[in-house]
Amino acid sequence: MSEKPSDDQPSASEIPDDVWEQFARDTARNTSAPKEPSARARMVTERLRQQEARGESPPGWRTGPATMNGRAARRRTLWAFLGVPLAVAVAVVALKPSLLPGDPFGTDESSAAASPLPVETAAPTAAPGASDPETPTLDEPFAGSPALRWVDGEDGIVLPDAKAVGSVPKERVAQALKLTKKLLVGANLDPKAVRGARPEVALSVLDPKQPELLDELDTALRSPSREHDPVTLFSRFRPDEVRPAGDVIKTRGHMTFKKGSHGGVAVRADYTFVYPLVRADGPPDVTRTIVRRVIDVELADPAQYRVTAGRLLLVEYDQEIGNSSCDVHDGYLHPEFSPGGPTGTAPTGPATDPYDRSRDIDRDDSDACGTVTRT
């Protein structure tokens, strides 16, 4: 259907020649799909045809650098389509420059906060690498420590996927793993227990039908000594001596399980806990005590053995403590602060890296106190 020009639009004879000529050139360059021309376009075309027949074609009509102009037109079209996305991209980069490849502006957020390590599923093959020699502070109590990249608290105790072992169903394996975690949390992460209170949560997991064991632990908590020291199983600090530097204890380790010797499932847990501390009454210097614990427990079958359902048998436990006064057996850990120096017996044993989880705990029975290479 053709268009009829409205009365208020100028006629073809009223439009200046230079406008018509520009229109003609643009029409000649148009490479889009053909479409029916409008009434005005037909008028222009007819006028130009008549001018060409009389030899009066305007400059550039079907002559001149069409190829160059065509490239220019396509280039302008390309930038027109790219303009909005490019503007959006520029705006995004302005707000978050780290999105640019290589982060040329040095604003990569990963440099501001260390990313957590992957979950440990087995013993590592080597000690963690050296850390920047930074001094810990109340704001950054794990500065200069490999534990900076460890997970906080009980979130660092990640249970392996439970599966049946022998005749022990998957559900009992899962129960044993959860009870083991509860024991670790109650003995090393419970805020009250860490501040020196009786570790009731941890004790509640142990089978009361191990009377000798519970009697020994009760004696150690009530009257600690060299022979009965609760820190061999529980992490405890004197509240009148030190206090936690913040609410975070770093945790790293792994747990394994196998068929037990009492008709149940045996679990081994190997975890290291890092405690940042300050003096209870003194300068706000931060130090760290590192405690590694390896415990073997079993959830026995109450249908075959005289045990308490839902309680763990504590088969064996061992520990390695870094940065605690040597040969002090009052039931607490005593972290040392650099300016003050050691408060216990001078160390005579070998130097060890308390963060090295690739080696077994030294079971030397000589009771020789050693030193740590870092805290």
Shape: globular
Report the mean per-residue pLDDT as an integer: 79
Question: What share of residues are in beta strands?
Answer: 15-25%
- Major sheet description: 6 strands, antiparallel
Radius of gyration, in angstroms, nearest whole number:
39 Å
Number of domains: 2
What class do helices, strands and sheet pairing give? Answer: alpha+beta
Order of helices and strands: HHHEHHHHEEEEEEE
What's the total helix number?
7
Structural write-up:
This protein is of the alpha+beta class and 375 residues long. The chain has 2 domains: 12-64, no CATH class; 122-372, no CATH class. 26% of the residues lie in helices and 15% in strands. It contains 7 helices and 8 strands, in the order αααβααααβββββββ. The N and C termini lie far apart (88 Å). Keywords: Membrane, Transmembrane, Transmembrane helix. Residues 37-55 have a biased composition (Basic and acidic residues). Residues 1-68, 106-145, 332-375 are annotated as: Disordered.
Compact overview of the structure:
By secondary structure, the chain is of the alpha+beta class.
List its traits.
transmembrane, membrane, two-stranded parallel sheet, disordered N terminus, 375 residues, six-stranded antiparallel β-sheet, transmembrane helix, 7 helices
Write the layout of secondary structure elements.
Elements: H1 17-29, H2 39-53, H3 66-95, E1 151-152, H4 170-188, H5 191-194, H6 200-205, H7 211-222, E2 242-244, E3 250-259, E4 265-279, E5 287-299, E6 313-322, E7 351-352, E8 371-372
Parallel strand pairs: 7-8
Antiparallel strand pairs: 1-3, 2-4, 3-4, 4-5, 5-6
